[in-house]
Specification:
Helices cover 48% and strands 16% of the residues. The chain has helices at 16-25, 32-41, 60-69, 82-91, 114-130, 143-151, 162-165, 170-189, 205-208, 221-230, 232-247, and strands spanning 10-14, 46-50, 74-78, 95-98, 134-139, 156-160, 193-197, 214-219. It is an alpha/beta fold. The longest helix has 20 residues, at 170-189. Strands 1-2-3-4-5-6-7-8 form an 8-stranded parallel β-barrel, surrounded by 8 helices. It has a single domain, classed as Aldolase class I (TIM Barrel, Alpha-Beta Barrel). It contains 11 helices and 8 strands. The structure holds pyridoxine-5'-phosphate (PXP). Pyridoxine-5'-phosphate binds at residues 14, 16, 50, 77, 97, 99, 107-108, 138, 158, 197-200, 218-222.
Length: 250
């Protein structure tokens, strides 16, 4: 059964941009394993990395090393591109989050068009199910896409929180919060685990943590930026504390 109200929200830490820093100069440092370990010390519940089609940050060898050497579950973000699916099958992470990918984008800009992608999704989901890989689909808070995700029997959806995080003002943020809350209710009642992420920061995460039924937040940019100032362990601990404090009032 899905998470009831009151269950703690888990924190997935996306460390892509640690690899972005490394790739900027083609060095061997910073070491992703060490960073993942510090995130774990700070209270991270999983580590997320996105193996992008252009390999601009995370490489296959990073995913392999993280799978072999960290204790936390690894969540692999990936598109439906054939070579990425092939790599995911070889790497066999415990969970994947399927996202749309556009080469020119700076980061994932929208949720997956689930209804339009059903035919491409089906065989991929079948091969992942055969390997015991849990699947989450990154979706916008749109009724039809959540319905389509449930019909595909995926384990979870991850709600794209960009609309809320990028809201122009407080009333816009409140409006998008309500849309996300309705989407989370819908997904929960369809039997899906509910994750959320994108654009969450130290300033906006507490209101997001009051959304119903959220099992996991996946957060990258804000934590990596804070880690430059305070170190990864402390950056993760601060985010985790904010989530736990707000989440306990759900
Ligand atoms: N979830 C998904 C599916 C994403 O693509 C991203 C961005 O990599 C995140 C969460 C994290 O977003 P941010 O870096 O803005 O915290």
């Amino acid at each position: 059964m899905n998470s009831p109200f009151g269950q703690k929200i888990l924190l997935g830490v996306n460390i892509d941009h640690i690899a972005t820093l490394r790739e900027a100069r083609g060095t061997l440092y910073p070491d992703l394993i060490q960073v993942a370990w510090l995130a774990q010390q700070g209270g991270a519940d999983n580590i997320t990395v996105h193996l992008r089609e252009d390999r601009r940050h995370i490489q296959e060898m990073d995913v392999r090393a993280l799978l072999d050497r960290i204790r936390l579950p690894l969540n692999l973000e990936m598109s439906l591109a054939a070579d990425i699916v092939e790599q995911a099958v070889l790497l066999r992470p415990p969970m994947v989050c399927i996202v749309p990918e556009n080469r020119a984008e700076r980061t994932t800009e929208s949720g997956l068009a689930v209804r339009a992608e059903v035919n491409r999704l089906r065989p991929v989901l079948e091969s992942f199910a055969a390997l015991g890989i849990r699947v989450s689909l990154f979706v916008d808070p749109v009724f039809e896409d959540i319905d389509a995700a449930a019909a595909l029997h995926v384990h979870a959806i991850e709600l794209h929180t960009g609309c809320y995080a990028n809201a122009r003002d407080a009333s816009d943020a409140a409006r998008y919060w309500k849309i996300l809350a309705q989407a989370a209710e819908q997904a929960f009642h369809l039997g899906l685990e509910v994750h959320a992420g994108h654009g969450l920061s130290y300033d906006n995460v507490q209101m997001a943590a009051r959304l119903p039924h959220i099992r996991t937040f996946n957060i990258g940019h804000a934590i990596v930026c804070e880690s430059v100032l305070t170190g990864m362990e402390s950056a993760v601990r601060r985010m985790k504390n904010l989530i736990e404090t707000a989440g306990s009032h759900r």
